[in-house]
Amino acid sequence: MRFDLITLFPDFFTSPLQSGLIGKALQRGIAQVYLTNPRDFTTDKHHRVDDEPYGGGVGMLMKPEPLFAAVESLPSLAQRDILLMTPQGQPMHQAMFQELTTYDQLILVCGHYEGVDERVRQHLVTREVSLGDFVLTCGEIPALTLLNGVLRLLPGTVAKEESLKKESFEAELLDYPQYTRPPVFRGWEVPQVLRSGHHGKIEQWRHQQQIERTRDRRPDLYQAWLQTELPGSNPSPES
Asked: What is the DSSP letter of 182?
């Protein structure tokens, strides 16, 4: 898979792209990441990428010309998606990451200032994506998050791919509690069932913990899970 990051600050990605699982995956060729700076496509002597909004208002907007030129300079693979990082976009979630792994190329446009010229939204990008209902100083942070979330799902990135199937959000449930040695730490013991060696009871305990943890921490996910477990039902929050 090819990732193209349209960013005014390429150096932002230097360390993250060389670290941890991302760095190892890129070294093994599981994916390729390319950085393109819109400022390189400006035509004025000051290399301006922003300007005042028509009609007045606070702040500046990213101009359309450098963004269009930056994206149009890239090779176009068979199946690609052009995503704008913006608080107005669809919040990221695990199912989105899974769907994005089916693409050959993801182009991530990192927004800045007060946003981008509306023509970028209407005629350049194919979808808008958000990290959440809050505002950050730059689009590089959500872009890195999306890249990480998608890349880790690609075959070969995570050594034990089975672990991807049993983590939070994969089945509308949060992950279960996990423990390691020592069996007793400051008087706090690892649940006996996990030390029993009875795999059936362990799986049952873990599943029940997932249900209870999701119900208590994320009622929205719990209700969604109930709908999948009980088709056609309309359970109450106390169910």
From this structure: -
How far is CA 39 from its chain centroid?
26
Q: In a 10 Å sphere around its CB, with 0-12 CB exposed, 13-18 middle and 19+ buried, how is residue 56 labelled?
A: exposed
The number of residues in the chain equals 239
How many Å apart are CA 84 and CA 66, to the nearest integer? Answer: 14
Three-class secondary structure of residue 140 per DSSP: helix
Query: What residue type is 219 in one-letter code?
Result: P
Quickly state the pLDDT bin for 235 (edges 50, 70, 90): very low
In order of their start, the domains of the chain are: 2-151 (3.40.1280.10), 167-229 (1.10.1270.20)
For the segment 136-173, what is each residue's pLDDT rounded down to a tens digit? 999 999 999 999 999 999 999 986 555 555 555 557 79
Helix axes 140-151, 20-27, angle to 10 degrees: 60
pTM of the model: 0.85
Q: Which tens digits make up the pLDDT trace of 104-124?
A: 999 999 999 899 999 999 999
